[in-house]
Structures are given as structure tokens and as C-alpha cells.
Design a protein that fits this description.
Blueprint (H helix, E strand, L loop, with lengths): L13 H16 L3 H24 L19 E12 L11 H8 L1 H16 L9 E7 L2 H17 L9 E4 L9 E6 L19 E8 L2 E9 L12 H20 L5 E6 L7 H7 L1 E2 L2 H5 L7 E3 L12 E3 L2 E3 L2 E5 L9 E3 L5 E2 L6 E2 L4 E2 L19 E7 L2
Parallel strand pairs: 1-2, 6-7, 8-9
Antiparallel strand pairs: 1-17, 2-4, 3-4, 5-6, 7-12, 9-12, 10-11, 13-17, 14-17, 15-16
Helix pairs in contact: 1-2, 4-5, 6-7
Length: 389
């Protein structure tokens, strides 16, 4: 699907300076002559201070920084990565023998409710605007992706934000295992002819998407690695197989273009220190290590040292874990083209998406006491990027 290419613009502060100047001059002209000269100098000082602050990039009073999930500055793009938990459509596929797939097909009203909750959750990001690119994990079909897109666009139109609608769907699906896969919803134009899956035939839950703005291309490799429930090997060999596939594709891209801007993300079902990430995907917590990794590319893991609230993206058996990840290549750290916004990585967990004493993810299974449906058994991850000028 094709849509309007978003424009990466810079803010104009001209109206602010004009308003300050006009207000100051009206105040000065109403005072006796002996007070006018000192006040005129004070107004000039205020205008100069505002100009210096705006040009330096420092936030004005009231603006929020860091991991707040705030709307990005003009020229920034927000990526969200979210395992949306069993997003099956309302049409029964006789080839899929899965309780969740059968249940949604038999309860189409629950499919609509699930789609609505996913849309609501995504639109909480960026103060009602949603992420510019949403990578969704555990999606059965293009029908699911289109349904979420339509629900989000309807909510954006109702909120007077029709100019922020989603125009691109990237999805290929998987025909093995539980028959679900990653997919992308995007406002940023997708290069559809470059969409592909990669890796071993049995590792179908991976997706390569290419996006472009201002002539700058961004590659996203997303995956849903085998869970710890079904990967019975102690060494997590199935997850290591996925890690090797993702790294192999990353290396092929960077061999062709060492400065390529690549994000590797998804639900890996392992944490930063596990072998699949350390030895397979070759992640690092060091920005300098990644910048210098030309011969053997490394990836910067944005949540390697996460110590915020909540403590993880999933909660189970009395423990938090970060199984979901966003990792970036050296091209996103070199000051050219697409660039990571420092300190922008966040586990997005507003109060509405939390449940119980542990404030864990509010699952779609819901609250047995109230009957209210939740969102997912994972919290979304977000990070912001901009195109360097």
C-alpha cells in the first residue's frame, strides 16, 4: 500500500519571538518614559535567552525528556516492538491446530475486541499519536494487520489526527508451528519489493522490512524466536538457530554496505546475557565497541542495562525478564542518515496496561473479577530515531 511520504521538518520558532516582542512593546509603551529604557533592555535579554535555548536543543520548561513515551520532536521517528499475544483472526484455518486460533474463529466478537485493545495500546504511545513504525509479534494473517491498521486510523480520525494515519502494512506470515509471525504497520513508506523472510526453512518467524524517508533507508529485521516452553534443549538450540539466522542476514547486509542502518528486534525469549544473544547475535552494551566493529559486526542492545520501571517486558513464575529486544548496528551511531536518539529506549507500561500486585502486563485473558479484557502478556518496547541533517 502506498501513502503520502512524511516530511521531516524542523521547528520554526518565529511566532514565539514575534509574540514576545509584541507583548513586551505594549507593556513598555504603557509605562512612564523613565521606565521604558530599562524594560526595553530586559525584553531584549529574554528574547535572546529563548533563542539560545531553542537553538541549543535544550527543552523548554514543561517539555519532558527521557523514557516518558512522549510525542517525538519534529524530525524524529518512534519505533515500537510489541508481542501482542495470540493475534489470530476470526476465520478458522483447518491447517492450524491451535486452541487460540479456534477460539477467535468461533468468537468473532472477541477478535474485534482484541484488535481494539491492540489499537488502543499502540495509540497510548506518543500521547495519542502512536509509533511511526509498529513491529507486531504473534500475528496470524494480513487480515489481522489490516484490522489493527483500520482500527487505529479510525481512532486517529476521531481524535482530529487524520494526517497521522497509517499507510503501509508489511507482512508475509509463517506456515509452520503456531502459524503466526511478525508484521509492520508504518507511516513511513515501506519499500515493498524488498520485503523478505530469511534463514532456515524451519525458522519462519522472521521478517525483513525496508523503510525510507528523505532518501535515507532503514532496514528492520524482526523475529520471534522459539519459546522456552517448546525449546526443550538445555542450551536453547532453537533460539540459537534463530540468532544465527538473524546475524547471518545482518552480516550479509553490512558486507554489502558497512554503514547500513539496521535494527534487529523482536521477542527473542532470551535475555541479554544468554548464549543466543551473546554468541549468536553478538550483542554488546558498549557504544564504542559497536562503532568499532567492522570486521565482526556487533549490535548495541538498548536494554542491556535497563533498570527502570517495570523491571522487564514479561512476568512469570515470580520473576521479571526482558525477552523483547531492540538492537542497532553501527550505522545508527555514526552521525549520518538514520540515527538513534540517545537515552530514548523505554519499556512502555502505562497504568492501564498493568495488572495485579506485581503490576505485570495486563493479558487479554482479562480480570476474572471484573471481566475486563487486557492487552497482552508483554509490554511494548519503544525507541526514537532521527535523520541527521
Amino acid at each position: 500500500m502506498q501513502g503520502r511520504k512524511p516530511t521531516m521538518r524542523r521547528r520554526s520558532n518565529g511566532p514565539i519571538y514575534q509574540m514576545l516582542y509584541r507583548t513586551g512593546m505594549r507593556l513598555i509603551s504603557s509605562l512612564p518614559m523613565k521606565y521604558r529604557a530599562p524594560l526595553f533592555g530586559l525584553v531584549l535579554i529574554i528574547i535572546v535567552v529563548v533563542l539560545v535555548v531553542s537553538l541549543s536543543g535544550c527543552p523548554a520548561p514543561g517539555q519532558r525528556n527521557g523514557n516518558s513515551g512522549r510525542a517525538p520532536q519534529v524530525g524524529e521517528m518512534t519505533l515500537a516492538v510489541w508481542n501482542v499475544e495470540n493475534l489470530y483472526d476470526d476465520q478458522d484455518d483447518p491447517k492450524v491446530h491451535d486452541d487460540s486460533e479456534n477460539w477467535f474463529a468461533a468468537n468473532p466478537d472477541m477478535f474485534r475486541t482484541k484488535v481494539n485493545r491492540v489499537a488502543e495500546g499502540l495509540l497510548k504511545i506518543n500521547e495519542g499519536s502512536g509509533p511511526d513504525i509498529a513491529c507486531l509479534i504473534e500475528v496470524e494473517s494480513i487480515r489481522c494487520m489490516e484490522a489493527v491498521k483500520d482500527a487505529m486510523n479510525a481512532k486517529l480520525r476521531s481524535a482530529g489526527r487524520a494526517d497521522q494515519q497509517y499507510t503501509h502494512v508489511v507482512f508475509l506470515g509463517d506456515r509452520g508451528g503456531r502459524f503466526f509471525a511478525p508484521g509492520y504497520l508504518s507511516r513511513i513508506p515501506a519499500l515493498g519489493d524488498r520485503t523478505r523472510t530469511f534463514g532456515a526453512r524451519t525458522n519462519g518467524r522472521v521478517l525483513e522490512g525496508h523503510f525510507q524517508a528523505d532518501g535515507q533507508e532503514l532496514v528492520i529485521l524482526s523475529g520471534h524466536w522459539t519459546s522456552r516452553v517448546t525449546d526443550k534443549d538445555e542450551d536453547g538450540s532453537r533460539r540459537m538457530s534463530y540468532a544465527n539466522d538473524c546475524y547471518g542476514r545482518l552480516r550479509a547486509i553490512l558486507t554489502a554496505n558497512p554503514d547500513a542502518e539496521v535494527i534487529v528486534c523482536g521477542d527473542f525469549n532470551d535475555e541479554f546475557n544468554d548464549a543466543s544473544l551473546q554468541q549468536g547475535l553478538k550483542v554488546s552494551r558498549s557504544t564504542d565497541t559497536v562503532r568499532d566493529s567492522l570486521r565482526e559486526p556487533r549490535l548495541l542492545a538498548l536494554f542491556a542495562d535497563w533498570n527502570g520501571d517495570p523491571s522487564g517486558t514479561v512476568y512469570g513464575r515470580g520473576n521479571w525478564a526482558i525477552f523483547d529486544h531492540i538492537c542497532v548496528s553501527r550505522g545508527l551511531l555514526d552521525g549520518k542518515g538514520w540515527q538513534l536518539v540517545p537515552n530514548s529506549a523505554n519499556i512502555f507500561a502505562p497504568p492501564e496496561m498493568r495488572f495485579g500486585k506485581k503490576q505485570e502486563p495486563f493479558r487479554f485473558g482479562g480480570d476474572k473479577h471484573t471481566g475486563e479484557r487486557g492487552f497482552s502478556d508483554h509490554f511494548p518496547l519503544t525507541a526514537r530515531f532521527r535523520i541527521a541533517k
